[in-house]
TrEMBL record, chains A, B:
Residues 170-320 form the PurM-like C-terminal domain. Belongs to the HypE family. It comes from the Bacteria. InterPro entries: HypE, PurM-like_C_dom, PurM-like_C_sf, PurM-like_N, PurM-like_N_sf. This is [NiFe] hydrogenase metallocenter assembly protein HypE. GO terms for biological process: protein maturation. PANTHER family: CARBAMOYL DEHYDRATASE HYPE (PTHR30303:SF0), HYDROGENASE ISOENZYMES FORMATION PROTEIN HYPE (PTHR30303). Pfam families: AIRS, AIRS_C. It comes from Streptomyces formicae.
């Protein structure tokens, strides 16, 4: 893995917001501190979910949710916590078998609000057809947490034939995107900052496992799947380019950016490529099945707007390039990640 | 389940510290709000870990850790997070297959401190012979969390023949305790409050799965296991008495309370029965194997001080009674739980 800054952390270094934003700083923290501490080699692909050792086709994923505000157009921390983990499992080709749900609540949080987001989590789990089988509830004093944090861990079973991995993308692959980008991050930011886009933009938070299952007929030709949450599409494409050692080329003209998202990004000075999503994924598939896979995605409501956005190449290994509307090329960097704290 | 206060929560009710303390308020919150929201029947036994649906002998447990301070005599939040989840799996008779670890860090936390507790988690996982297979890192702004919270979720496989459940205790069972009580809670409280007991008391935090495995030869005669963490021995015994519908009778003379713990509890006005532990468990076993089970526990260093503390009876179903040193009887209530926040 390429780290721009190879010096070890000094004794004075502290946790920064960007360490949690899913971009370059997060990757650095994982490589230089977290993974070595936990005895993991930092050079393997970092997937959305891990295979359970000795567990056959079982995969496991965990995520904590610290989104602020707790409720936003299109969802809340409860539905987000269910969808986020269901989707991380789906990105390994797995359908969810069970979820756990752990609550950290701040003293003084209205129980009505806790009930509302847990009801929402319960409904989301029911709609995703996955039981919440165990949980945990902790309370900290006033000021020791910001209202409510959730953690969900999911266990899933891989759909027979599907074995996507970020390391399996290869030159020639078509890059598909299952839906429009930028909705979740702009919906949360707009609500938090009171920007007034809340009527036009709603989070795309939704479960994606059924859409992934629609790719099952293509089996091994489905090489890599990733949902562009923190760090947005730019982070997901860079992670796959890095893990697989391929170049990724995408066309700006093909990117589905809703006009309200574009307007919000203009106002906020954000690139839609780095804004978090919670209801779409990229699929790297063999070129000969790309059209059929696209049709399979479009046959589902949550994939109705699926498009092909690019392809993989040997030309610029481990790098992502964008062909702009004017025909120029620019490198799409891994976002450093400070811009969008607490988006999920 | 008996709830003293059957009225629904009002719109003005808020989260209290006691809701997270593992006692009566926690049980109430689960029954009246959390479990209904998640579509779970509130009348079944609440175990330390759940069986994975369709997962054969796999069990799953999740816990968030918010202990303050992060480091205390005998351990830190990292080792505690590993031991806590390994032990919850063990209480269902399972050995750990894999852990997940999710971090919520406050902006400004020294990276050296993060590294220290993650190193500790890594070492604890290695010593428990369980890999950390996936994780998550979130950062919140200054003041939005108190330094560091962790979540661990564990997946384990039941030891063949062991199927303990809090509902399986029955009249006549012997109640065994694997080690002394009160060490963890008093160590954390003493450190937090600067009481000066830190030289005499260290947390008992340790993995208990090998000690549980020592009970495997007794198979089905091992009815119930529980580690008395939040809410202490009083909560664990009450939970089993309630879930199994049996009376539990314990002898004060048999309770192993280290003298330093007794002194700290005197000073703090605490009953050692409600102080959290992280390195012992109670086992409800058939009377005919009790002596042999005790010998099996004592053969391991972590069970060297195992003792029989009481038995189950039909006399006072769902109630726990203590025979005092003076021969009197007193009811051991489920602690309400406000007294010891952020102990784990």
């Amino acid at each position: 893995m390429n780290i721009d800054c190879p010096v070890p952390y000094s004794e004075d270094d502290v946790v920064q917001l960007g360490h949690g934003a899913g971009g370059r700083l997060t990757a650095e923290l994982l490589d230089r501190l977290v993974l070595p501490a936990l005895g993991r080699r930092p050079d393997g692909p970092l997937e959305d979910a891990a295979l359970l050792p000795g567990g056959g086709e079982l995969v496991v994923s965990t995520d904590s949710f610290v989104v602020s505000p707790l409720t936003f157009p299109g969802g809340d921390i409860g539905s987000l916590a269910v969808h986020g983990t269901v989707n991380d499992l789906a990105m390994r080709g797995a359908l969810p078998l069970a979820l756990t749900l752990a609550v950290i609540a701040e003293e003084g949080l209205p129980l009505a609000e806790l009930r509302s987001v847990l009801d929402s989590a319960g409904k989301a789990a029911q709609q995703a057809d996955v039981p919440v089988i165990t949980g945990d509830t902790k309370v900290v004093g006033r000021g020791a947490a910001d209202r409510l944090f959730l953690n969900t861990t999911g266990i899933g079973r891989r759909v027979p034939g599907l074995a996507p991995s970020s390391a399996r993308a290869r030159a020639g692959d078509a890059v598909l995107l299952s839906g429009p980008i930028g909705l979740h991050g702009t919906a949360v930011l707009s609500t938090r900052e009171g920007l007034g886009f809340e009527t036009d933009i709603a989070s795309d938070t939704r479960p994606l496992h059924r859409l992934v299952r629609a790719l099952a007929p293509f089996g091994d030709a489905v090489h890599s799947l990733r949902d562009p949450t923190r760090g947005g599409l730019a982070a997901s494409l860079n992670e796959i380019a890095r893990d697989a050692g391929v170049g990724v080329e995408i066309a700006e003209s093909a990117l589905p950016v809703p006009s309200a998202v574009a307007a919000a990004c203009d106002l906020l000075g954000l690139d839609p490529l780095i804004v978090a999503n919670e209801g779409c994924f990229v699929a790297f598939v063999a070129p000969d099945i790309a059209d059929a896979a696209l049709l399979a995605l479009r046959a589902h409501p949550e994939g109705a707007q699926a498009v092909r956005i690019g392809h993989c190449t040997t030309a610029h290994a481990a790098r992502v390039e964008l062909r702009t509307l004017l025909g120029a090329r620019r490198v799409v960097d891994m976002p450093s990640g400070e811009q969008l704290p607490r988006i999920c």
